[in-house]
Specification:
Length: about 350
């Protein structure tokens, strides 16, 4: 039998008894099967506007039409190898539609989105090029001054932290702006304190280093093996931690208390890891136990915007945007549980106010 493309104007075309009243925005291929003939497709580009609706199952007994919906494909009627669908009169009058839901928006929007992703990747590559280039030269300055730091400022290491501030500022300035709020709430530079903050992105470290305070971050031991960056962390006196090792966690807390007693400050991310969805997670009590045992003030800090610029798990991109760092009033107390609740509520309130 000769294959023919059928249309409503064709003499052999037989319309179904019922019409399909509405369809969501589809990018479709329409097949007409007539009396057991082979399939020949006809491209169909309909200008239907609803892109968010989904197709519910619609079964039509006499019209020989069945719609089934899935996440990616919509099929009307079961498709046999020769597209034969027998009804009571055994005539094949099927309309088979295979379609995929189009992406939201126009093709121009898709192009803009793709272009934005490419630009973010390029910005990410440039970001790491800048941070590596500046780190090499500044690390040499840290290395030269390290003997004097060990002799005269072994615990605070203000010189090294000043170099770290220059490094972080030079890195972030070409890509996004960091705004500070509540700088007056920072304790005096020579006052040891426990700083705590939410954790959304790898960029949190850069934003916090631009404060220029001599606090010691707690980091995974594997980070210290990274060339230049890991070595600089060692010179800064950062505290290594094996997350799944309870003995390492206990040694970390003891070292934090020892540093505070000797006049240095420490910095904790009480969530323990970066937030995947931007929401504030539960706080661990380690940082607040250190503060309670040493009578050091707890300084809550809220970092806003880093998760949008470099989301967790997407360290290869840098989106355009800005970062806001909010320093809250110090909290004092001797009960770790109360300190933990107050600090978390303070940070959560600042995050909620930005939504």
């Amino acid at each position: 039998m000769e294959v023919a493309s059928l249309s409503p104007q064709s003499p052999t075309y037989r319309p179904c008894r019922r019409e399909v009243r509405s369809l969501p925005k589809l990018s479709s291929t329409l097949f007409y099967c007539h009396k057991g003939s082979h399939i020949r497709h006809k491209s169909l580009r309909s200008a239907l506007n609803s892109s968010q609706s989904s197709l519910a199952g619609i079964r039509r007994k006499h019209g020989s039409m069945l719609w089934q919906s899935s996440d990616t494909k919509v099929e009307a009627c079961g498709l046999h190898h020769d597209c034969k669908f027998h009804v009571q009169n055994k005539f094949a009058r099927d309309v088979v539609v295979r379609s995929e839901l189009a992406t939201v928006g126009s093709p121009e929007d898709d192009y803009s989105l793709s272009k934005l992703k490419v630009e973010s990747r390029i910005r990410g590559a440039c970001f790491y090029a800048v941070t590596a280039f500046t780190a090499i030269f500044l690390f040499l300055l840290m290395l030269v001054g390290h003997p004097f730091v060990i002799l005269f400022d072994r615990h605070r290491r203000k010189y090294h932290h000043f170099i770290a501030k220059i490094w972080s500022t030079l890195t972030v300035t070409p890509f996004y702006k960091v705004n500070f709020e509540g700088l007056e709430n920072l304790p005096p530079r020579d006052t040891p304190a426990v700083y705590v903050s939410n954790h959304q992105s790898f960029l949190d470290i850069y934003a916090l280093l631009t404060l220029g305070r001599s606090f010691k971050f707690i980091s995974k031991t594997s980070i210290f093996l990274y060339p230049i960056i890991g070595w600089a962390m060692f010179l800064l006196g950062m505290i290594p931690l094996k997350r799944m090792d309870s003995r390492s966690q206990l040694d970390c807390l003891k070292r934090c208390m020892d540093l505070i007693k000797k006049g240095a400050s420490v910095f904790f991310f009480p969530e323990g890891t970066r937030s995947k969805d931007g929401k504030l997670g539960s706080f661990k009590k380690g940082a607040f136990s250190v503060a309670a045992k040493t009578n050091a003030p707890v300084v809550p800090i809220t970092v806003i915007g880093t998760g949008q610029i470099m989301p967790a798990g997407r360290e290869d991109i840098v989106n355009p945007g800005s970062v806001k760092v909010v320093i809250h009033r110090p909290i004092n107390g001797s009960d770790p549980t109360i300190l933990c609740e107050e600090a978390r509520n303070t940070i959560a309130s600042a995050l909620d106010s930005q939504e």
